[in-house]
Amino acid sequence: MDPPGRPPSDDTLVPALPRLSVRDAPQEATPAAVRAWFDEATDAAIPAADGTLAAAQAIAAALARRAKADNTRRAYRAGVRAWCAWCDSHGLPALPARPDDVAAFLAAQRYVAPGSDDTPKATNTLKLRLAAIAYLHYLAGLASPTTTAVVTETYAGLHRVAVEAGSGPRPKLAAKIGLLREILAPIPDDLPGLRDSALLLLGFAGAFRRSELARITVEHLEECEHGIRITVPISKGDRTRQGVQVGIPYGVSMLCPVRALARWRQAAAIETGPVFRRIWVPPRPRNASTDWTPSYTVGWQAIDPRTVARIIQVRGAAAGFDPARLGGHSLKRGALNTAKDLHVHPARLKQLGRHKSYTPLAAYIEEGDLFADHALNGVL
After folding, report:
1. Which of 64, 81, 172, 267 is deepest in the core (most CB within 10 A)?
2. pLDDT tens for each residue of 322-348
3. Torsion angle, CA of 196/197/202/203, rounded to 10 degrees?
4. Is 244:232 a contact under the CB 8 Å cutoff?
5. At what angle do helices 177-184 and 305-318 cross, to 10 degrees?
6. pTM for the model
7. pLDDT at 240
């Protein structure tokens, strides 16, 4: 892992793969042309095979781009979009980027002029922007300016000042079992409520990431004697894409995730395809009576990971919690910290979180009581 206060290493940002290109990179072109080229390069489809070396190389390049998760590619596109827009506003070249310009871009993104419509970007956002600029240069076959001293020192300074000012990165609030109960209590039993309750309970019981929840389909579910088995085909910790299985046991209270999922599927008549889907709500008629209730329509498309985070925030806000403190990681953090409070062995915590090592697990676990949880409590 990269040390705090430093941007990711070049090896992290740019894997050792063949240089990728849809067409010649538009060096010294307008920022708009650079952005268009980058969008095309990251979204290009896998070409058809014709037996030639050129086709095989093009297919290999397209497959290499698929090594990046959809969320990562979206973040990179947003970062390149911001970078190109800033370069365009100042008449600067976006590709190849000059290190001094990248450093100034970081400062401009963090320190916004009074009265501007822009908002200061968090240091984590700036870290992603640097990764996007590095990936842009990687695709173009150019050396990345993000590893130069002026850029790394500028980012380190931004991070240090942010931490000293108390505005450094803050982990999302852990939705432990007590907090989860409060969030669930006011949720009604209409279609959106049944979906959101099932999503919250399943996300907690399985310590799922938001992307994993969004991808669950009926075909991934298997009913068992003690609950349901869920096959997760794509997971952040499953780098080899072999798929992992997550067991969700029957609960002993009204918060049983297995039964909540069954209620949602029955109400929405979901037999195949995505489990958690979009719900369309018609607008309220102007002459509607006071007892008017909407007629919900369940779509066929799965919700996206951002919708999972919004559901957690909206339902949390309805229960009186600050939505800015909640997010997609709240359920996973809540599950792991609830288990930690029950003194579950760290090996089982790692298994619940599906982490390959204890290092990433530590980022999810809160400190707890400094005295009751002291490793040498009662020894002396």
Report:
1. 172
2. 998 999 889 999 999 999 999 899 899
3. 50
4. yes
5. 80
6. 0.71
7. 57
CA distance 14 to 4: 19
Say if CB 181 and CB 133 are below 8 A apart.
Answer: no
Tens digit of pLDDT for each residue in 246-285?
999 999 999 999 999 999 999 999 999 999 999 998 788 8
CA distance 7 to 81: 19
Domains, the chain, in order of start with CATH, read: 10-164 (1.10.150.130), 177-283+291-362 (1.10.443.10)
10 Å CB burial of residue 9 (0-12, 13-18, 19+) is middle
Say if residues 108 and 100 touch (Cβ distance below 8 Å): no
From 187, 148, 179, 145, select the one nearest 330 (Cα to Cα): 179
Q: Is 157 exposed, middle or buried (0-12, 13-18, 19+ CB in 10 A)?
A: middle
Q: What does the buried/exposed string (b/e) look like for 338-353 if buried means 16 or more CB atoms within 10 Å of the residue's CB? A: bbbeeeeeeeebbebb
The amino acid occupying position 297 is T
